[in-house]
Design brief:
Layout (H helix, E strand, L loop, with lengths): L22 H10 L6 E4 L6 H8 L3 E6 L2 H12 L4 H15 L6 H4 L21 H17 L3 H18 L2 E4 L2 E4 L10 H25 L9 E4 L2 H4 L8 E6 L9 H4 L1 H6 L6 H10 L18 H13 L6 H24 E12 L1 E3 L2 E3 L1 H11 L3 E11 L12 E9 L1
Helix pairs in contact: 3-7, 4-6, 4-8, 6-7, 6-8, 7-8, 14-15
The structure holds S-adenosylmethionine.
Amino acid sequence: MQFDKNKNVFVHRWYPFVEGYSKKFIEDILRELPFVPSCALEPFCGSGTTPVELQNHGIKCYSFEVSPFMHLLSTVKLSRKYNIDSFEYYVKAITKKLSHTNRNIRKLESLPFGDTVVKRNQNKKWNFHDASIDGILDIRHAIRTLVDNDDYKDLFTIALASIILQASNMFRNGKCLSYKKGWKTRIFSRKDIHNFFLDKLNSIFAEDIRIISKENPSVHNSEICYLGDVRKCIQKVPDGEIDLIITSPPYLNSRDYTDIYMLELKVLGLINSHEELRVLRKNTLRSHVQVSYENIIPIENERLKKSLYEMSKNEQKVWNSDIINMICGYFEDMQFLFSEFAKKMRKGGIIYFNVANSAYYGVEVPVDYIIADIAESCGFKVREIRKARDLKTSPQQSAKIGKLRESVIVIDY
Ligand SMILES: C[S@@+](CC[C@H](N)C(=O)[O-])C[C@H]1O[C@@H](n2cnc3c(N)ncnc32)[C@H](O)[C@@H]1O
């Protein structure tokens, strides 16, 4: 299921998204379905694996994504309006522009917001060395001023996104961004950064655009990927139209996608202030503790109550109400979503719901079973909880808890 299978796959390889699943996961589902779906829903689009693959099979799909970066990535992958002549024309213009860089690029392109983006007097750590960020700003400027078509502008922006981590001093370390070993002395020149970008354009992007150029545009549906919080926007999907949902929501593991993809959000100018960041976090599913909530009363569910009771027995001294609120908020969100799915689906439809269990205070939360209960309470019938693999627990939990089950819940309507 894992995204690494997509690393060399047409279009999916434009930007590696470790939290995504593979194209093959969708293909396997389509193969086992007893009917040909007519309209699907993906509430947590991420890098767009579900709608992109369904589009390849001619299946209409409504999708939702709250992060402006992931939304941009998905819409670029879904667009498929590109042709190789226009692509090469723009690449040539950008290459020429990058051969004469402007000394005062920071006067033309503003630095991403935040105190740790570049070295400042008081900083001990910074995300980018000066030459790296200037190289990135050169590219951003070239895209902004030379590419006059929005589809291509977005496409080149995703190509830029795909080299941001490489150009930075950071790496993605599970739930957060950490500093690379030896980052202080590993310094790229502005030219290196331009070359990372141009190499990407001239290799995988050019190869895939060449293939897209030869495709028949009529084989693609016009896909609908909405930017926003699915809890607020799902009303946009007509009632009774959906016969397939394939999704993987954020897991209940305190991972905040806003944090993990912070460099992309800032460098591409998609988040420009602390306030915008706060609003984005507030709009994400309650699977992390970056936003505090009032005391949330747990939904009526015996398994959830049992887990919360066991946690309260185990760790009274280090009790953190934010974590308990996150757990309660997560299942409240799930209950709301399943009640909406029941309105949007037609009888005979199927849901494939990919989740993983979690552990807090030495107690395993059986997320898959609780979600299965929630689905049944909303009028669905759980056919199967299919184990996908075992995941490692965090170091704090590993002494008491072994592995955590990741599964796919198959649910009939
Ligand atoms: C596990 S990822 C989905 C990965 C996807 N299956 C793929 O293959 O790329 C979950 C996604 O849900 C998004 N998300 C979180 N809260 C959301 C919300 N309230 N509405 C819509 N999307 C949300 C996150 O930004 C993240 O991109």
